[in-house]
Every structure is written in structure tokens, then in C-alpha cells.
Design brief:
Order of helices and strands: HHHHHH
Number of helices: 6
Radius of gyration: 19 Å
Distance between the termini: 46 Å
Shape: extended
Structural class: mainly alpha
Largest sheet: none
Length: 108
């Protein structure tokens, strides 16, 4: 950080900007599935699956859990000889994962 100063916070985004970004992200996600797969699985099934994945990534707590799990896996792989697994298990017990998943259930 130049001169020991943090960067200025970015200005808050408008509701229309957030909506446009969500729409563009959803459209991009839909476009990632090729036509052959759509024909094999079925267009409605693919659409519903993509909608479910999109909704899943809108839940901040679920994203946080996903990040923690990825970080935990990385740390365990990086330091296999340490007692990282036991330490992380103790930390994980303080997070009520099942309640968070139930609260953000993406299944209709």
C-alpha cells in the first residue's frame, strides 16, 4: 500500500447495476451448457439445474462455507504432517453448518 494507506472503498452499487450483473451472470451460466447436452438431458432439466446452481451462489453464508471448506482442504494438503485436521475439526464444530444449509435450501 503506497504510503501505508488503504485503498478508498468502492462506491455502493445501484440496484439496477446489481440486477443487470445478476442477469448477465445467469445468462452466461445458461450459455455454458452446449446444445448436445441440452438435447440429451432435456432443455427443462438443464434450465432448472442451472437455475439451482445460480441460486446457490447467491447465498453469502453458503459461499463462505464453500470457501472455508476449500481453504481447509488446501491447508490439509499443504501441511499433512501437522495436526491441522484435528484443529480444523475443533473450529468446524463451532459452525452450525446444517442449520445454514437448511436456511439457504436451494431445492424448491
Amino acid at each position: 500500500w503506497p504510503d501505508g494507506k488503504w485503498a478508498d472503498p468502492s462506491p455502493p452499487r445501484s440496484a439496477s447495476s446489481i440486477s443487470l450483473t445478476k442477469f448477465m451472470g445467469h445468462t452466461k451460466l445458461q450459455g455454458m451448457i452446449n446444445d448436445e447436452l441440452r438435447n440429451i438431458i432435456g432443455k427443462d432439466t438443464v434450465r432448472e439445474g442451472v437455475d439451482m446452481v445460480f441460486r446457490m451462489y447467491q447465498a453469502k453464508e453458503m459461499n463462505r462455507l464453500l470457501f472455508y471448506k476449500m481453504l481447509e482442504t488446501f491447508i490439509e494438503a499443504t501441511f499433512p504432517d501437522n495436526k491441522i485436521k484435528q484443529t480444523l475439526s475443533l473450529l468446524r464444530n463451532n459452525i452450525n453448518t446444517k442449520a445454514i444449509i437448511r436456511r439457504h435450501s436451494i431445492v424448491k
